[in-house]
Design a protein that fits this description.
Length: 379
Amino acid sequence: MPQPVLTVFLIIAAIAIVVVLIAVIVIALRAQRRRKLAQTLEKRRDDEVQYAFIVNPSKPQAEARRLHIQRFCEAKGLNRIRFYDTQLDKDGRVCALEALGDGTVRTVASAVSGTGHALGIIPIGTGNLFARNMGVPVDDIDAALTVATSHGSRLVDMGRLTLLDHPKDDHGHAFLIIGFDAAMIDDTNPELKANISWLAYFVGGVKNLFAPKFRGTLTVTSADGSTHTIKNLDFRTVMAGNCGQIPMFSLMPAASYDDGLLDFEIIDTTGGILGWANLFGDVVHQTIIGKPEQNPLSTNSTIEQVQGVSAEITLEKPAKAQVDGDMLPETRHIRFSVDHRALIVRVPDASALEKTAQAAASNATSNFAEMTGTLEPIR
């Protein structure tokens, strides 16, 4: 075999071996996490209350999940259950509520926030962002059901937004995005999304890489009541939320779901493809180090991150906006606020959430955050 061919063959073989080793390590780590979670869930005590399962019937697997839930509850002896198709019984008789999918989770969370009812999540959506950030298993429905129907809850913040040019619209949210990402989601093919999940968003993203930037004024109110205004702000995307983990990456490493603060991330790029490549490097950098910090090698992208108890953004022109994956009407004026620890959520592992909250608190430097906090368990 000629030397160049042999060299190429050895390189390919080495890459293949590395890929296989990485795959084996990932599979082993996932199996270990599953075993640890199973051991944790075995110790939980079932909660004998009435359950309302709010199901989004538009999801392809909704009916199969409904039957699975019925069988699970029968096996556990949970007989006081009801099913609702993306509707909510507000008469106060329901003690725990279970939701399916990011958009449905947001709708139900907004309704039960402040009522004392607990929210459980059985994820069947595309991103399942809130479930992931709460540590709820997204690929094991029985584990998610066990979490939802047994004792072990947390008080978390409820973010809210109002479209001031659509004043009747009030939305609870975990994650709101204005600009490029909203356009990306709006241009994502639903059939493609159903087939390849969140990877379909990349197709929508390519369509909007060279779209014009947005300009507006952002005013953030800090915990001490002081305000900071940025005028003539040019950006590709503005994000707001109280949790920042997405599949594989961390968009807002300092975001904590119970510190009474909303996190805002302002993203901009220049130089075409080079800027977007730099931005990807920024996200990878802060994911690796676990802190909201710009990649020192970036030259054509910026990620500005701030925190506050409320904020308003006014745009020069109407722009697309999305909340937890659902599109909102085009808007020029949005107000953000947060209800501190207003939502009770069933979670699998208290200690893991405490570590996450503590890490977020430590990453929020004095210049970045006005106050921080860690989770406290409730019964």
